[in-house]
Design goal:
By secondary structure, the chain is an alpha/beta fold. It is built from 10 helices and 10 strands.
């Protein structure tokens, strides 16, 4: 693993086109404590349930914020703080993890405002190498909310060499190394175009046996793999996650072709990331940013760190990114 501090001052222009079939949680949904959902005609029930769950949790965060403001003055205006929380929830794909951590999420932000100059709030963004150039745009959009409201943050973009075993079997090591190098350079270029000395790129190269799925290094991730394969039943949560991800991959057409080896490998990587951030967020708590399509995957990180799982839907028209 190596780390580079990257700086720059150029912003991006990206396609912010809103698709009619997408659902958006607007800041106007919270009116007089009533929940109002604006659903496009073709939105299915599953999407509705996700949106409603997000709205309910956001409203709970609002209520908690109000309780805090009664007890003691907030570091910033209550109305402004509420708008900031609302803007953040607009970007989420699923509720904040772990369950019922909306209070902890608010507390972390308040604490960071109190010490913003001496110790900025730390964010870690998980980027999987095959999709990193797409994902990072959404992370940057979310990070811009903190900047817009004057909260000082440091950001660690954690680029993971995360490959499919079956694909890697088909190509030479030289080709796969070159592919990852190109992916890394693309992410470096994007980060250097941002005007911040507080952005850091950490690159973790997962070394793996492409036929068995065994993780060979780094040690943090190899340990996670060995726990899953050699000590799977000694921890109930570990065994539960292992059973779940195997079953999940077997049921999904796009994942079943990857084999059980890939399922175990992917779980081990997530657990390795969980260990990484436990160290990264000492002594002050931070926030982990992910872009998991299935919210159940968040449990696979095996951490009590607050996780905000971002949606990869088209960015809102009023984005400041």
């Amino acid at each position: 693993m190596y780390t580079n501090i990257l700086t720059g001052n150029q912003l991006y222009n990206i396609d912010n086109t809103m698709k009619s079939e997408e659902v958006y949680v607007s800041t106007e949904l919270y009116i007089d404590n009533k929940e109002t959902v604006h659903n496009p005609e073709h939105t299915n029930n599953c999407q509705n349930n996700f949106i409603i769950a997000l709205i309910k949790e956001r409203n709970l965060a609002f209520d908690y914020l109000k309780q805090l403001s009664v007890k003691t003055p907030l570091p910033i205006d209550h109305f402004i703080f509420k708008n900031m929380i609302s803007d953040m929830y607009d970007c989420l794909h699923s509720k904040i993890h772990p369950k019922n951590c909306h209070k902890k999420f608010v507390d972390i932000i308040i604490s960071s405002i109190d010490r913003t100059h001496s110790c900025p709030l730390k964010l870690v963004c998980v980027l999987a190498s095959p999709t990193a150039t797409k994902e990072i745009l959404f992370f940057l959009n979310f990070i811009s909310i903190f900047n817009r409201y004057g909260i000082n943050v440091t950001v660690d973009f954690l680029l993971i060499r995360w490959e499919y075993c079956r694909e890697s079997q088909e190509y030479s090591t030289l080709y796969m190394n070159k592919k990852f190098k190109i992916q890394t350079e693309e992410i470096k270029k994007i980060i250097t175009q941002k005007d911040s000395k507080n952005y850091q790129l950490s690159v973790i190269e997962i070394k793996q046996d492409n036929y068995t799925g065994e993780i060979l290094g780094p040690e943090l991730f190899r340990d996670s793999y060995l726990e899953l394969t050699q000590l799977p039943l000694e921890d109930k949560k570990r065994a539960r996650d292992l059973d779940w991800i195997k079953n999940f991959y077997s049921r999904q057409h796009s994942l079943s072709r990857l084999g059980v080896e890939q399922a175990i490998l992917d779980l081990a990587i997530r657990r390795g990331i969980g260990r990484y951030i436990e160290e990264a967020f000492r002594p002050e708590p931070g926030i982990l940013l992910t872009s998991e399509l299935n919210a159940r995957m968040l449990k696979c990180y095996n951490t009590n760190t607050v996780i905000t799982n971002l949606s990869l839907r088209p960015l809102c028209q009023n984005s400041q990114f």
